[in-house]
Amino acid sequence: MTAWLTPRNAVAVVLVALLALLPFYASVTGNYFLMSMFTRILILAMAAVSLNLIMGFGGMVSFGHAAYIGIGGYVVGILAKEGIGSGFVQWPLALAVSGLFALGVGALSLRTRGVYFIMITLAFAQMVYYVAIGLDRYGGDDGLTIHKRSTFDGVIDLSNRTLFYYLCFALLLAMVYLVWRIVNSRFGMVIQGARSNDRRMRAIGFATFRYKLTCFVIAGVMCGLAGALLANHTNFVSPAMMHWTRSGDLIVMAVLGGMGSAFGPVIGAIAFLLLEEGLSRVTEYTNIILGPLLLLVALYARGGIDGLLARVHRG
Amino acid sequence: MADALLKIDGLTKRFGGVIASDNIVLDVNRGELHAIIGPNGAGKTTLISQLTGELAPNLGSIHFDGADITALPVYRRSALGLARSFQITSLFLDFTALDNVALAVQAHAGHSFRFWRDTRTEEQLRAPARAGLDRVGLSNRADVVVANLSHGEHRQLEIAMALATKPRMLLLDEPMAGMGPEESARMVETLRELKRDLTILLIEHDMEAVFALADRISVLVYGRVIATGAPAAIRANPEVRTAYLGEQEAAGG
Ligand SMILES: Nc1ncnc2c1ncn2[C@@H]1O[C@H](COP(=O)(O)OP(=O)(O)O)[C@@H](O)[C@H]1O
Ligand SMILES: [Mg+2]
User: Fold this and answer.
1) What does the pLDDT look like over A192-249, one tens digit per residue?
2) What does pTM read for this prediction?
3) Residues B192 and B74 in one domain
4) Which candidate, B150, B151, B170, places its Cα nearest to that of B160?
5) Which of B164, B193, B227 is where one domain is finished?
6) Which residues have a beta carbon within 5 Å of ligand 2, which is an ion?
């Protein structure tokens, strides 16, 4: 079927192949910095993919998504500091706390729309941010060093950088696949219908609130996992992980990559983080360049990079 | 009287100083096509929105098939078999026509906490959706994104969506608004068909259509029902003539 061989899919396939081969390149050249950088990219891509589920497909523009990265990370960090190093405890708890937080935020914010929704999600994220700063026992403002990565005895050794990279890679692909399944399912149609016309959804008989709330929690849990991974990757958690600008970055990644597809945010995360990395080497005013650039994308390249590729195909 | 499917009693709705529904008492009998006419701003849309639950009345009650539904949320009333079409087209513009109707079918095919199966392969949703499009004459437009359909097609899709929820009663808010004569004639035919199986509350400005279709007509002016009766009686009613029918030509809808 040539229908599958669109520029859009080709780019996705090439990207996935390059990501799969990256550790080989790293081991041949000894450039482990690159692998470390891309581990972070994969993790933040997961966060962007999860945000895209609620924002791109559900129309729920959460300006507090980085809070889940922080929550997932802090659960791992706090447990590690208290002597509980098993990932079998840390990770499920990280997901559970993220999910509960999403449940609370969603229950209070999803009855509002537009700017109000954005402000409430931001407010909750700021609350978590300041709570973390207040955690003197866990480093407060300075953050908390994690001396040992989560242990999964007999399953996987996360201190092996290559294994850790592939774990992130596999989880990211799994997440993209999951989102793709979800958005094409009955549940996904309800979510997209609610984005498109919530009033009509209720008129034809859907109690949209409970579906949106469920979707919000799913995204929170997914992002909590990204947080647990990030804590393991950097061996460090700090309030800065969930600064509101980080939430903004996640939105930018999703918009840049293209909110209309499950894979788009992966492209967006790679593009954004590479751009940020590259710019930070030549100038300290990265935001002055990134900001207007993103504005252009938002204004002229609706659908992001993914949308551009789709249009290339249609000609 | 004994066989009212929908019973409206003392319904009152105020918007600040405006009384949009003023103590409305109205029965719609089972199997009846009941039309509501009245000048712009009379409160017709407001009435429908209270029947579907999108607006809460200040006073009064609504009974559907014997049950008090005055306080039920919108989706519960839909589940009981009340469906509306919107005066201002309200569709999922970024979905295809078929997806629109399939979503309406899905709303009444069990819960939607189903996360895995590709819903576009579910024949139990797609087949009734295709049948729905067929019923309003849109089957050849099934895969067109709704934003690219014409105004007349939107109006037809509105009806197909309402029908797909398997309603017992349809609330149609000016289904022919903005239609050309040809499209209007087609819509009249569609409504005539639907009338055989469904109870219908029809709001319409097209008098020709109303008098051709309605079993009974109620006239709403400034939120009040000033007359209810058979088409002939309404046409002859002097109060109606002065309040509405006379000025209708000038107002034009
Ligand atoms: N949401 C609203 N807020 C305030 N006033 C409203 C609202 N909806 C309708 N109205 C007013 O109520 C009256 C009835 O409006 P409507 O039901 O739309 O009339 P119709 O459908 O018969 O043209 C009008 O005076 C209108 O301005
Ligand atoms: Mg109206």
Assistant:
1) 999 999 999 999 999 999 999 999 999 999 999 999 999 999 999 999 999 999 999 9
2) 0.90
3) yes
4) B170
5) B164
6) B 44-45, 87
CA B227 from centre of chain: 20
Task: Give B74→chain A minimum CA distance, Å.
Answer: 6
- Same structural domain, B62 and B179: yes
d(CA A183, CA A1): 23
Residues B119 and B238 in one domain: no
Residues of A in CB contact (< 8 Å) with B are: 181-182, 184-190, 192-193, 196-197, 199-208, 211, 214
Whether residue B75 sits in one domain with residue B194: yes
Record: contact B112-A189, CB cut-off 8 A: yes
Q: How far apart are CA B2 and CA A246, in angstroms?
A: 65
Task: Please tell me the predicted confidence (pLDDT) of residue B24.
Answer: 97
Our CA-based measurement puts residue A32 at a distance from the nearest CA of chain B, in whole angstroms, of: 38
Domain ranges of chain A: 34-243
